[in-house]
Amino acid sequence: MTPADKAPTPGSSRDQVLSRIRAAIGGPTTGVPRLDPAVRSYLDSHIPDDPAAALDLLAENLADYRAHVHHCTADTLAATLARLLTDHGSRTAVVPPGLPHHWLTSITGTDILGDEPALTAHQLDAVDTVITACALAIAETGTLVLDASPDQGRRILSLVPDHHICIVHAPEQVVTSLPRALPRLDPRKPMTWISGPSATSDIELDRVEGVHGPRTLDVVLVSSLPR
CATH 3.40.50.10420 in the chain, residues? Predict the structure, then answer.
């Protein structure tokens, strides 16, 4: 096969993809045909624009992935976090530096650790629980997205401890679908996408949890919506 045989044909899908990559990274575009913006005429969500319906679907899909879902209000969030730590028997919990301090005021019997200076992987392996916020949650897929913002911390925080408590505020942090989530995320940030506790079925199709991350995922849905 000659180099000419390998060249993409003008207007082919490969040609369009490479052209958009060049434009996005500021690469050379000489001789590259100008492309019209991508046409996205597909349906970007399959549920009504109803915040309560989106919250219910998120809770349903999270539970389907074997996450434990808890509902509360802003006024009862601190007590909910304290109860979850007690129920799990957590002796230690790590929190990112930007997590609001007033969320932790009801916690007793659990030592709260900060991540400044940064904890090592070995130190985190000895921690029972991590508490984080999230960037947003996707209802149709039951997915939590963390983007390393100050209230979420480094990616390693949500990957090493065996128990993760993640806090989602509704309706502002709940989107119905992936196409609606992507425009709200910064692709330059190191993102972690979580759909339920870590699990694999690679070995003889037996489900094993806690392989690539937390074995237990508690999701706290803090809602101002009427229920």
Answer: 51-223
What confidence score (pLDDT) does residue 79 get?
Answer: 98
pLDDT score at 200: 62
Q: Domain 51-223's class?
A: alpha beta
How far is 140 from 170, CA to CA, in rounded Å? 15
To the nearest whole percent, how much of the chain has pLDDT over 70?
82
- The first and second tokens of residue 68, run together, are 């434990």
In terms of C-beta distances under 8 Å and separation of at least 24 residues, what long-range contacts does 108-111 make, across chains too?
A: 108/82, 109/85, 110/85, 110/86
* Six token digits for residue 169: 């505020």
Q: How far apart are CA 199 and CA 66, in angstroms?
A: 10
Does the pTM surpass 0.70? The reply is: yes
Q: Evaluate whether 222 touches 170 at the Cβ level (below 8 Å).
A: yes
For 178, the token pair is 């992936």
